[in-house]
Amino acid sequence: MGIRNDVGVVTEDLAGSEAKSVAEAADEDARLEREADRLLAEHGMRLDGAQLYTQKGLLQKITRELRRLPEAEPDGLSARASEFLMGRFIQSRLDSAGLSGARRSVYALRLRGLTISEIAALTGLSRQCVLNTTSLAKRKDRRSSDRYAGLHEVYWREVRRYVYRKPRRGRVMGDG
């Protein structure tokens, strides 16, 4: 049966003896670490220059590294990369629609995912005006966009990809 002392070290209670003191537990841990280092050195694992971590130190290192990593969305892209790609997509859609200033900004908001009501509240336009503007922009965008856009790149990627072909059986070259 284990006894938990005041700093959280669990020690074994054998034959009714009292729990080890904190200092004795620390000495025991240090002795075990020295013994582990000696065994590792015996088997050719040198610890010179190696950075070893305690469990607490390792957890601190992991949390420090996690704070340094860019935050990623569920799709795996960072927020900055996602915003850049979204901006490029919206810019290409707006360019293909060929819209003027006010219509362009309304359609950009719609492409960002805002609802008709949200756009109307944000811009001060009526819902019907926003609806008419976005439907006009969609029609212009659909008419002007090339339905074969990107097909050239897909063709070249497919033509150049490696495909394993099983060797033929039967006749070997050189057999008459």
Task: Pick out its properties.
7 helices; 176 residues; mainly alpha; 57% helix; 2 strands; single chain
Compute the separation of the termini in Å: 85 Å
Nearest-integer average pLDDT: 75
Structural class of the secondary structure composition? Answer: mainly alpha
Helix fraction bin: 55-70%
The count of β-strands is 2
How many separate domains make up the residues?
Answer: 2
Strand content: under 5%
Order of helices and strands: EEHHHHHHH
Radius of gyration: 34 Å
- Report the total helices: 7
User: Which sheet architecture does the biggest sheet show?
Assistant: 2 strands, antiparallel
- Largest sheet, spatial ordering of strands: 1-2
Question: In terms of per-residue confidence, which ranges show pLDDT below 50 for 5 or more consecutive residues?
Answer: 4-9
The backbone outline, from C-alpha atoms, is elongated
Give a nutshell description of this structure.
With 176 residues, this protein is mainly alpha-helical.
Describe the overall structure.
The chain is mainly alpha-helical and 176 residues long. The protein has 2 domains: 67 residues, no CATH class; 68 residues. It has 7 helices and 2 strands. The chain has a two-stranded antiparallel ribbon. A hairpin with a 5-residue loop joins strand 1 and strand 2. The longest helix is centred in the first third of the chain and has 21 residues.
Set out the fold topology.
Elements: E1 2-4, E2 10-12, H1 22-42, H2 55-68, H3 79-97, H4 101-111, H5 116-123, H6 127-144, H7 151-160
Antiparallel strand pairs: 1-2
Helix pairs in contact: 3-6, 4-6, 5-6
